Amino acid sequence: MHSVTGVDPHLDIETYDPSADLMVLNLGPQHPSTHGVFRVKLYLDGEIIIKAVPYAGYLHRGVEKLCEELTFVQIIPIVDKNDYVSPMMNEQAIAMACEAMLGIEVPPRALYLRTIFAELQRLASHLLWLGTFGMDLGGALGGGATLFMYCFRERETILGLFEEVTGCRFHYNTHAVGGNRHDITPKFSCDTKTTLEVIEKRLEEYVQIFSSNRIYRARTQGIGVLDGDLANSLGITGPLARASGVDHDLRRDAPYHIYGELDVKVFTESAGDCFARTLVRLNEMYESIRIVREIIDSVPEGPILGMKPGKSPGHIKIDASQGYSCIESPRGELGTYIIGGGKSRGASAYRLKIRSPSLHAASCIPYLFPGHTVSDAVAILGTLDPIMGEVDR
Amino acid sequence: MPGEVIQVKRHEKLGFLERLYVPMIVQGLAVTAGHFFRNLRGFITGKNRTDFVIQYPDERVDYPDAFRGMPVLVQLDNGQPRCVACGLCEFACPTDCISIVPGEIEGARIERYPEAFDIDMSRCMFCGLCEEACPEEAIVMSREFEISSYDRQTLNYDKERLLVPETLLKRRLEFLRGEYDRVHAGGETRS
After folding, report:
1. Which one, A149, B75, B83, B147, has the greatest CB density within 10 A?
2. What residues have CB less than 8 Å from A281, skipping those under 6 apart?
3. Domain assignment of residue A77, given as a range
């Protein structure tokens, strides 16, 4: 069993020093720093956490079971609500799994669109994380709500871009099995470039606000050190693992969309603390901006749907067959495993399994929290960035 | 080299000025103050506005053409819905919020019509699958989305409340036709 800084995550509270001043504190389920409904039971000795037990399941909606009832066309707007900070990724994961199962070729234009959407969504998601992380640290950034408002303003411009294409700010329903539903216009590429310019300029300002602030450093450096081996054994992926020195990025290791043709830079850090995770995410934001800029002008003409469009929601039918897809969502590896040949004569899935990165991120809480104070726990939870909709599904 | 790995630079040690703390606070405040005065100037002069606050409901954002609001029924000039009660939208809806009771008129040009057409807006998620499934352009996503109410029953829209004259939905219908031609270029065409 791995242990971090000599802390036993499976500490039996009964055997703990009986003379200690023990206290049980529930962080959540409605605490703002948990970014959703999530409860962590903290056993405190004074102000130091000696044991943390996470309780998930407050946001369980049975999405996987629901997907067995609905057809392949109908599940796409449903899975939008899993990771409600980056819905594009959920749609892409499910659409790609269906395509792998059905053996549909996606036209190049749709692949370009998906890549652009994915990178913009990653940027939006990381912006939201930066804002809420500033909020979590609170006073360290001179009243963290400022950064929160700034980041939301920038994120809003990206959501505005999505709205222009898909018609919705959030639950897009823009991916279809075999391609995309909505096409971009020349205006979109123009707007995107302006937006990215503004965001890039402002990001630098935001980094100035906190990066060399001594209080910020004290709150993040050496806090919540996640060991690379532990990250691997818990199945942690994405920025969290990369901040712990794990060189793993599906965009490069198992290229999908058009990432194979792109030169995706993978940013790693070896320290594995909150500060490292911040740095990795910040660099990924710049990388996303770079990728979008690189491909926005070279989107090829052509169809965006790789199959004959069907009117009926049950027009995609398949006998027993299976498909798996994994994509690099802003939080790590988002995998979808689908088995076809379910209800409505094969128009729905027999079984669907979503491997969500947030669940794995949340699973390291018992290892990271002990030894820190409650205020540090909030900072760690902020950098783990688990989205509860995805943890519980 | 594709897929280059870059070790992020980490300035662990703070410089002298940074350790003094106050200059860094001033730097941070300079950024926020800069934003504040830029926003203020834009707000007062009304030019190059950088503030994102919209004085809703006095001011409203003009949503793009693609905007998907609540689904409504297209009303023809004779006051009847264009809907022929085929039930495709009912079948397409992932949340089962549409319920249709079909009726028939003997000898009319369009025989079938919906005797009842209810949409439970408390379940509808504005996904637009009904609009996509409709072969008659009879159900479209309007630009209306402010439908909150104090009463759950109010959200259960019946046929009379869903009917919107075609002229008011022109923007959406035109957008849909253009989008359909663009997306399905070379594929199956709409009759």
Report:
1. B83
2. A126, A129, A130, A239
3. 63-392
A74 to B92: CB separation less than 8 angstroms, yes or no:
yes
Per-residue pLDDT reduced to its tens digit, A93-122: 988 888 888 888 888 888 898 999 999 999
A267–B8 C-beta distance less than 8 A: yes
Q: For residue A361, which of A377, A383, A344 has the smallest C-alpha distance?
A: A383
Please judge whether B92 and A283 are an interchain contact, meaning their C-beta atoms are less than 8 angstroms apart: no
Instruction: Round to whole Å and give the CA distance between A268 and A249.
Output: 10
Does A107 fall in a domain? yes
Taking CA atoms, what residue in B is nearest to A304? B183
At B140, which helix (H) or strand (E)? strand B139-141
Judged by CB atoms closer than 8 Å, whether chains meet at A271 and B66 is answered as no
pLDDT for A141 equals 56
pLDDT digits (tens, 9 = 90+) for B128-167: 888 888 888 888 888 888 888 898 888 888 888 888 888 8
**Interface predicted TM-score of the whole assembly (ipTM), two decimals:** 0.79
Give the chain A residue nearest B30 (alpha carbons).
A209
Rounded Cα distance between B112 and A129, Å, is 53
Residues of chain B contacting residue A150, judged by C-beta atoms under 8 Å apart: 35
CATH of the domain at A251: 1.10.645.10
Is A8 domain-assigned? Answer: no
- Total tally of structural domains belonging to chain A: 1
A105-108, Cβ contacts within 8 angstroms, sequence gap of 24 or more = A105/A306, A106/A178, A106/A179, A106/A306, A107/A179, A107/A302, A107/A303, A107/A304, A107/A305, A107/A306, A108/A258, A108/A300, A108/A302
Prediction pTM value: 0.86
In a domain, A57, yes or no: no
For tokens 């495993």, the residue is: A337
At A177, list the tokens.
């099995």
- Give the model's confidence band at B184: pLDDT under 50 very low, under 70 low, under 90 confident, else very high: low
Q: For strand A332-339 and strand B71-75, is the pairing parallel, antiparallel, or unpaired? A: unpaired
CATH T-level fold of B71-182? Alpha-Beta Plaits (3.30.70)
